[in-house]
């Protein structure tokens, strides 16, 4: 792969992010629903050879194409976060789904420019679905434009979270109270829920205890689809965010959720 030090077009970054997602597909499917040794990280979350192998493939490709870029991955850590462009990757978002044969695990790829996510890809290898977006562009699902719903009220909303187990006791009670007011409440999906939000099938997602590699790729996709995604204080998501994420189809719905989460801080302008 050629290297470059010239100014980088964001469209080229998005194209490369999709190349990376393509690379992750065969590596994911080769090991999916096969016996795997499972290790436990310090936070007790599971990790497999698949997570590590895929991230190694992605890191090698990034270093080959853009050697002057930084990289932050779930399994192999951070390198050169002070550089203007930083790639943030989660090789298997939803390892618990992966090891239990549930096909709704994904690969998340983001590129940050000056600390802000400008490209995002949500790839679902087992079901062959993908969302992709770049800053100031149109979010795409399966190569075609997609957009969020027009839902403005929680009472009419379809709301998701991956698992109530991810919440602390107080926050779990808060989430269950908020989501009980929605028209429909479902659990599961990891990054897939955000893709469904970008396509207008889900109206809101609330989560906590996420890491930058869990949410950075989601930001360009949700925003380019017309939605809002911030922390629980209505602030932009960054590498230093606390991991509390709220995403919604419309500004009105997002504001209602922020108020119920304990803040009426305004959302970032899209």
Automatic annotation (TrEMBL):
Mg(2+) 1 binds at residues 74, 92, 214. Its EC number is 3.1.3.15. CDD domains: Bacterial_IMPase_like_1. It catalyses: a myo-inositol phosphate + H2O = myo-inositol + phosphate; L-histidinol phosphate + H2O = L-histidinol + phosphate. It is an enzyme of class 3 (hydrolase). One of its GO terms (molecular function) is inositol monophosphate phosphatase activity. Its cofactor is Mg(2+). It holds the Pfam family Inositol_P. One of its GO terms (biological process) is L-histidine biosynthetic process. PROSITE patterns: IMP_1 (PS00629). Keywords: Amino-acid biosynthesis, Histidine biosynthesis, Hydrolase, Magnesium, Metal-binding. It comes from the Bacteria. Mg(2+) 2 binds at residues 90, 93. Pathway: Amino-acid biosynthesis; L-histidine biosynthesis; L-histidine from 5-phospho-alpha-D-ribose 1-diphosphate: step 8/9. NCBIfam families: his_9_HisN. Belongs to the inositol monophosphatase superfamily. This is Histidinol-phosphatase.
